[in-house]
């Protein structure tokens, strides 16, 4: 699983400064030519300094400009953007097509952004935790509830509650032997960040699922799993990002369940038996 430079630029783009966005815009519009540019040539084309280019590539996760160019040359072609904004005149069929294309694009881009080492670390952290607690508010509560519902099928001790006050109380009682999985699209929700800061104070390991790689929330976490999605409706939440985050959660569940196959199979059998008895 390789990180794609184009995907990383798009993931960080919302948090870029005006100057960084100018560099990003030029790079995205000239992908074929920048691979042949020296750092001085690119800086000149972007009307900026070589130091600014160097800071830019380090900001998106590369050690230097050469490392960035090598990545562009060796990774698979960036996921093609299928995303189009929904317009007032669009028919139901056209809106549906754009919605599906947005979800497909989000899944492809998120897959390219995920780091295999961090995924393996997340699975190991979850597997050895005395308890796994899920945190998410607003739209992110959907992903948290999905994770809780899935992981109940494993032998792990899990907990989740949608209310902020109760989530904070759960956070207060957690220890460094447990694991917190926190979901936030922006990574800047004040209440979610407050929970994360409390967990950080108590040295509770945190896995963050977010669309913002350098948000306040992401900076507090040991492991950051980043979803990438372009908005298709300015008046609505980023629904494609939600699809990508649900898929990240499902991937974590399946990886842990596979690692603990025997224990998971036993729990699933017991759960199914208990549920089936209610229909008799």
UniProtKB/TrEMBL annotation:
Gene3D superfamilies: Glucose-6-phosphate isomerase like protein, domain 1 (3.40.50.10490), Winged helix-like DNA-binding domain superfamily/Winged helix DNA-binding domain (1.10.10.10). Pfam families: HTH_6, SIS. Residues 3-79 form the HTH rpiR-type domain. It comes from the Bacteria. GO terms for molecular function: carbohydrate derivative binding; DNA binding; DNA-binding transcription factor activity. The keyword Transcription regulation applies. SUPFAM superfamilies: Homeodomain-like, SIS domain. GO terms for biological process: carbohydrate derivative metabolic process. Keywords: DNA-binding, Transcription, Transcription regulation. Residues 122-262 form the SIS domain. The keyword Ligase does not apply. This is Transcription regulator. It comes from Paucilactobacillus vaccinostercus DSM 20634.
């Amino acid at each position: 699983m390789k990180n794609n430079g184009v995907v990383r630029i798009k993931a960080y783009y919302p948090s870029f400064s005006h100057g960084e966005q100018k560099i990003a815009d030029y790079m995205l519009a000239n992908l074929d030519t920048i691979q042949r540019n020296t750092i001085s040539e690119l800086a000149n084309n972007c009307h900026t300094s070589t130091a600014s280019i160097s800071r830019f590539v380090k900001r998106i996760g590369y050690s230097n400009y050469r490392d960035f160019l090598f990545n562009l040359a060796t990774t698979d072609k960036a996921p093609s953007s299928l995303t189009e904004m929904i317009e007032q005149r669009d028919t139901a069929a056209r809106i549906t097509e754009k919605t599906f294309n947005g979800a497909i694009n989000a899944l492809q881009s998120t897959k390219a952004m995920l780091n295999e080492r961090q995924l393996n670390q997340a699975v190991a952290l979850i597997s050895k935790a005395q308890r796994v607690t899920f945190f998410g508010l607003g739209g992110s509560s959907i992903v948290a509830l999905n994770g809780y519902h899935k992981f109940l099928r494993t032998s792990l001790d899990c907990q989740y509650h949608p209310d902020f006050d109760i989530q904070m109380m759960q956070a207060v009682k957690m220890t460094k032997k447990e694991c917190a999985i926190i979901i936030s699209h922006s990574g800047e929700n004040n209440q979610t960040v407050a929970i994360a800061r409390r967990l950080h104070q108590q040295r509770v390991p945190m896995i963050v699922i977010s669309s913002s790689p350098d948000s306040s929330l992401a900076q507090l976490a040991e492991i950051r799993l980043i979803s990438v999605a372009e908005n298709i409706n300015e008046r609505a939440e980023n629904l494609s990002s939600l699809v990508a985050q649900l898929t990240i959660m499902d991937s974590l569940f399946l990886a842990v369940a596979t690692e603990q196959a025997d224990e998971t199979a036993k729990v699933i059998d017991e759960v199914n038996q208990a549920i089936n008895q209610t229909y008799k």
